[in-house]
Amino acid sequence: MATRIRKVEKTGTLKWVRIGSMRVSPQAQRELKQARVDRLVANFDLEQLGYPTLNHRDGVYNIIDGQHRVEALKAFLGEGWEDQQIQCHVYDSLTQQEEADRFDRLNDNLIVTAFDKFRIRVTAGREDEVAIQRIVEDESLRISLDKLDGAIAAVGTLGKVYRRDGAEPLRRSLALIRDSFGTAGFEAKVIDGLGMLCGRYNGLLKDQVAAKKLSNMHGGVKGLTNQAERIYQQTGRPKSQCVAAAAVNAINGGVRGKTRLPNWWAEE
Questions:
Q1: ∠ CA(180), CA(169), CA(139), 5° rounding?
Q2: For 40-86, how does the pLDDT look when each residue is reduced to its tens digit (9 = 90+)?
Q3: Of 43, 161, 179, 200, which is the most buried if we count CB atoms within 10 A?
Q4: Cα–Cα distance for residue pair 208/206, rounded to 1 Å
Q5: Are residues 87 and 138 in the same domain?
Q6: Considering only CA atoms, which of 145, 192, 152, 151 is closest in space to residue 173?
Q7: Stretch 14-34: mean pLDDT, rounded?
Q8: Where does residue 58 fall: left (phi above 0), alpha (psi -120 to 50 degrees), or beta otherwise?
């Protein structure tokens, strides 16, 4: 009996697309790295261009994957690149969320920065990243690489705390850092350490009291991390745990009786 041959077809198709009609959706793409474009230009080989992945929506071809290759091609072609055409793998009428989802899947095994991946996964509607974004915004903070008030860049640590300790400890730890140290406190090891603190002492930790104690530390967040470093030198324990231990010591300062938090190491 003859074997029936079946075709395996993708939903996208190969099309010739005018370069000038291509755009990048920043919510569904990683940040452009000019250094990477420059390296591609310096060693440009048209045979290595491959097929950029696009989505045709509202008369525009959004680049889902291949923006660095397209930028390098523009530099290679020089003046008049807008009217040149290249073959691309084209989807039709994907939403912005679907574009982000496709980018995430295409680049799952490639080097994409944690920040870009987080931002794109929010756009793609990934459950954890959307929940983390909501927690951050509910505390009047934001996910950003800038240094302005309320900006948090350590998205990998946010995800770590969320998955290890849960949504409420993450929310409380961000509020505690904000009220104690301001934006300067949103370092990865501080978020991680205070996430542990809020997760372990749930029900015992009085957030307003803790914020007042921590905000009065000499040197602010630097004072906390300096004390954590001394604990690290003495114990060799993970630095985030040393941050938590230093925070417990600061919160317990001058406190007697049952309102004291148990020693961090005794609680292990």
A1: 55
A2: 888 777 777 788 889 998 888 998 888 888 998 998 888 889 899 99
A3: 161
A4: 6
A5: no
A6: 192
A7: 83
A8: left
Residue ending a domain, among 63, 81, 109, is: 109
Sign, Cα dihedral of 203, 221, 174, 164: negative
For residue 80, give its domain range: 13-109
What's the pLDDT score for residue 38?
85
Q: Indicate whether 134 and 105 sit together in one domain.
A: no
The pLDDT value recorded for residue 6 is 47
83, 130: one domain: no
The neighbouring-strand residues paired with 85 are 18
pLDDT, mean over the chain: 87
pLDDT tens by residue, 87-109: 998 998 888 888 888 888 776 65
- Write down the pLDDT at residue 78: 86
Q: Measuring CA to CA, how many Å separate 86 from each of 23, 57, 187, 261?
A: 14, 18, 44, 65
The model's pLDDT over 188-215, given as tens digits with 9 standing for 90+, comes to: 999 999 999 999 998 899 999 999 999 9
Number of structural domains (the chain) is 2
Whether 114 is in a domain gets the answer no
The verdict on residue 1 lying in a domain is no
- Helix axes 167-181 and 155-165, enclosed angle (nearest 10): 130
> What's the alpha-carbon Rg for the chain, to the nearest Å?
25
For residue 29, what pLDDT is reported?
A: 65
Tokens found for residue 2: 């003859």
Please check whether residues 149 and 212 belong to one and the same domain.
yes
Q: Residue 9: helix, strand or coil by DSSP?
A: coil
What's the 3-state SS for 113-157?
CHHHHHHHHHHCCCHHHHHHHHHHHHCCCEECCCCCCCEECCHHH
